[in-house]
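re: that chain from earlier
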Amino acid sequence: MTDQRPVDAEHYTKDYFLGNCGGSEFFKLYGPRVLKPTMAYSFARAEIKSGMRVLDVGCGRGEILYHVKKAGAEGIGTDYAEPAIQIAAEISGCQVLLADAKKLPFPDRSFDRIFFLGVIDHLHDWELEACFSEFKRLLKPDGFVLIHTCTNKHYYKNWSFGARRSLARIFGLREPSRPRSDEDEALHVNEHTFGSLRDFFRKIGWSAEVEPRMNYKLVLRELYGELPADFPMKPSQGVGAALYRALLWRGPLKRILAREFFCLAKPT
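^ sequence. v structure.
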């Protein structure tokens, strides 16, 4: 039987948040000022306005909260790990609380937006059901939740890895690294696909737009405009990128080739 115990908070150390957690290369260069692509896209979709109340669940280093405050909204963060609380409070200047996402210490209808970025893969389905029950309670009538996955389980880890390993063996090339690192095994206990996300939201009775996202190197200029010389990612461009968009990033194929998924979800 699969182990359904929550991931131990002791895995989420200060070194994890500052060195291994996604976007650390941006944080080292720019602090909270420049969001990593997944956060930048999610923040743009949130349409934060002055006067809103915004909750960031699993706030990590606090970059989203920094931008919420900059937009004139009230940001509150929660995290399951003590090191994140210390970092995020200092970085964002917002209120940050140590709290389990399955039982949040706020009154009903408290928030216009809830961010839940890079967290969904770290929680089992039974935990996610409890989280979204809390989110339903906390959202104002016109509010919604913004979710971003860490990975698409089909991409690389299920199908493309096997194909690339076979090709490497046939042509005598170096084999790709194994699809799940030790950290993945310990922390990403519930990685998703397009279908599993769609089915989860149907199961809990939420309306959700599940959007496949391509490799962010293909959309950096759309997200950021002109890039600084020290930007930690280089944009993919030229004929190869154009062909990928035109021939491969189409229809149901996007659901397989997506690197990650973005979801905008509302209770119904």
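DSSP finds 13 helices and seven strands in the chain.
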